Amino acid sequence: MSAPLTIYVPRDSAALSVGADATAAAIGREAAARGIDIKIIRNGSRGMFWLEPLVEVARDGVRHAFGPVAAADVGALFDAGFPGAGNGHPLSLGPTEELDYLANQERLTFARVGVIDPLDLAEYEALGGLEGLRRAAAMKGAEIVEAVTASGLRGRGGAGFPTGIKWKTVGEQPEGRKYVCCNADEGDSGTFADRMLMEGDPFMLLEGMAIAGFAVGAQEGYVYIRSEYPHAIATMREAVRLWEDAGLLGDDAAGSGRPFRIFIRRGAGAYICGEESSMLESLEGRRGTVRSKPPIPAIAGLHGRPTVVNNVLSLATVPVILAKGADFYKDYGQGKSLGTQPFQLAGNIKRGGLVEKAFGVSLRTLVEDFGGGTATGRPFRAAQLGGPLGAYVGIGHLDVPMTYEALAEADAMLGHGGVVLFDETVDMAGMARFAFEFCQIESCGKCTPCRIGAVRGKETVEKILRGEDVARNIALVEDLCDVMTDGSLCAMGGLTPMPVLSAIRLFPEDFDKGRVAAAAE
Amino acid sequence: MNAHQESESDEVEALVVDMCRQHDNAPAALLEILHDIQDAVGHVPQSSLAAIADALNLSRAEVHGVVSFYHDFRAAPAGTVTVKVCRAEACQSMGALTLIEDLCRRHGVTLGETSADKGLTIEPIYCLGNCALSPAALVNGKPVGRADVERVDGAIREARS
Ligand SMILES: Cc1cc2nc3c(=O)[nH]c(=O)nc-3n(C[C@H](O)[C@H](O)[C@H](O)COP(=O)(O)O)c2cc1C
Ligand code: SF4
Ligand code: FES
Questions:
Q1: Which residue numbers delimit the NADH-ubiquinone oxidoreductase 51kDa subunit iron-sulphur binding domain (chain A) (predicted)?
Q2: B-chain residues near A18 (CB < 8 A)
């Protein structure tokens, strides 16, 4: 008897949101009814969300893709020869790795996401997992820090601070209790890379955290995951349990002779808790109020002890750097934006998903070649880059290379790599209003320009929307933005002006509609 | 307080004491404890705050301050089915605001409130990490992508059955 055919049906929550569980169940039922021997693996997502549920069949070492496969399609698929063949079926997409969307990427951090069973440690190891950790376990802390510094890796959470330099500071603090805190609060609209990684390759994050622990002499790690991600929380908890059982975490973590443990913590629905000091307050069981700096967390972080705070993607990239070398990593990218960035194409886009590319790819390549333009088919009008605190850009920005430097020059920012598309029906004054509203809802309340400015800003944009005293109110909004930029303690209040002012600058006509309408009456 | 309410709050107190102990009565675990309580009881009852404060050696004001800071914690029970609809930018680009209006109108509820029969709560949420399949919703914890009124209603019916 031949071995069962392996069929992959993602367990990623985005795939679940369009029926992956029902599809998996239907495949199981249909195979049983036809007496076909199969094994279903629930993998992460390949990040081609418009094709979810994306079903794959492994035949002769090649994975063949079918998608989007609804439960109702399963019977017809089997009729056409699936899983043995079925290549003539309209949902057949051909070999997965040859799909343009994947073939044109440079997947380093996401190499295993969507490929493996996320909780199969043997498979993880077979595909290069644990190599970085084993190397690190045999290295001195300072050597690990040196490798990370040499790779040019910068924080993927938004601020882009060099990861190696942060680790060096923590490592140089006197020995004693130190922490590694992973920021998995991923609150930016248009971003889902952290979620995909935690659901699709959770061991890689644990590996990165353990390496960070060895590098700086920390004994404990915390992953702070937003409560909006119940599936990621469950997968990470299970991953930690498996690593504990395997001796990779504990008193002698991965045979290093050093202790390292990891704990999973849930957020509670507060965007501001993605700001690192607010996250630390929350991890200490308090209100997520932003701390004044100094001291920086590297010197006095969790419970006042030296703490590495890094984004999920920063930490998950470290094992690659340790395994393949700093030179390998920094061969990707350009200037001071080295390595690869997992971009996330979202919103009104035909082919939304995860695109990991070397820094320097143009926005046009992302939006047009990968994304295929808007989902509605109407002309593209605006994109918001880098989450709710990031700038809106328009058609004139399509050729900007996606690097930290080029985006800053274009008065925009990369943030966590989110690209949210809007078609021509978007009302940019409405989006400016929303930027203030979001700041009002999520402000921690510590400083007046942010707390009060957000409310005043929202009210003033509402006046503009009604056509009241437009020129004066636009000037008022601009003044208010100056006050918020200069007088806010953190980027919540400090960068809310970015979407607002970019909308006014690029789409002034949208701020004049109310006046025109009022005059016409 | 009538006898029924009293025994109920005694029960809550016993549960809270137990949950705090499971987290070693550590003040740093306060959010986890509040989540555990809400998962078990459906909300964080006012009557639990004193017991938490006692167990963790915090003031009641501190515990209240934390409960009120975070959007997740509710002081009163939600409906049997809770629908959280994303109204952040990516979902707005695909019509989330209209979807929310339509859902509320159809079910006769105000966003953020619970229906009179306690059957349904519709709440705003800001990003579910499903922004490539916008608009996104969560219906009793179950993700719904490419959400429209029909798909959300289907998930509501499923949650009720
Ligand atoms: C309002 C606000 C929200 C933030 N949200 C996040 C977040 O969700 N995830 C994240 O990693 N960083 C977030 N940051 C950035 C963190 O403060 C911090 O820079 C980051 O976690 C450091 O890790 P990195 O160097 O690996 O990027 C946020 C910052 C601000 C001001
Ligand atoms: S800018 Fe806003 S969110 Fe940041 S510390 Fe001030 S009040 Fe808090
Ligand atoms: S913006 Fe709605 S799911 Fe992310």
A1: 429-474
A2: 133, 145-146
Pocket test for ligand 3, best of B85, B130, B133, B138 (most atoms within 8 A of CB): B130
What are phi and psi for residue A10, nearest 5 degrees?
Answer: -60, 150
Please indicate, yes or no, whether residues B44 and B85 belong to a single structural domain of this protein.
no
Q: Note whether B139 contacts A: Cβ–Cβ < 8 A.
A: no
Cα separation, A75 vs A26, whole angstroms: 8
User: pLDDT tens, A367-415?
Assistant: 999 999 999 999 999 999 999 999 999 999 999 999 999 999 999 999 9
Closest CA to A513 of A438, A434, A430: A430
* Number of domains observed in the structure of chain B: 2
Give the confidence band of B1 by pLDDT, cuts at 50, 70, 90. Answer: low
Residue A12: partners with Cβ closer than 8 Å, 6 or more residues away: A20, A44, A45, A52, A114, A196, A199, A200, A231
Q: Which of ligand 1's atoms lies nearest the C-alpha of A389? A: 1
Binding site residues of B for [2Fe-2S] cluster, as ranges? Answer: 86, 91, 127, 131
Distance A494 CA to ligand 2 centre (A): 8
- Does residue B47 form part of some domain? yes
- For chain A, domains (ranges, CATH) are 5-103 (3.40.30.10), 121-330 (3.40.50.11540), 333-423 (3.10.20.600), 428-520 (1.20.1440.230)
Residue B76 lies in a domain: no
Single residue among B16, B35, B69 that ends a domain in this structure = B69
Last residue of a domain, one of B14, B48, B69: B69
Which among B68, B80, B71, B81 has a CA at the least distance from the CA of B127? B71
Question: A346–B70: do the CB atoms touch at under 8 Å?
Answer: no
Confidence band of B3 (pLDDT split at 50, 70, 90): low
Is B103 among the domain residues? yes
Q: Residues B42, B17: one domain? A: yes
Q: What is the A288 CA–ligand 1 centroid distance (Å)?
A: 13
Radius of gyration of chain A (CA): 24
Residues B87 and B53 both lie in one domain: no
Does the interface predicted TM-score (ipTM) exceed 0.90? yes
* CB < 8 Å from B in window 423-462 of A: 423, 426, 431, 434, 438, 441-442
Q: Which tens digits make up the pLDDT trace of A263-289?
A: 999 999 999 999 999 999 999 999 999
Site residues for ligand 1, CB cut-off 6 Å: A 155-159, 161, 183, 185-187, 272, 274-276, 309-311, 314, 490-492
Range of the domain at B12: 3-69
| Beta strand pairing call for A333-334 and A337-338 | antiparallel
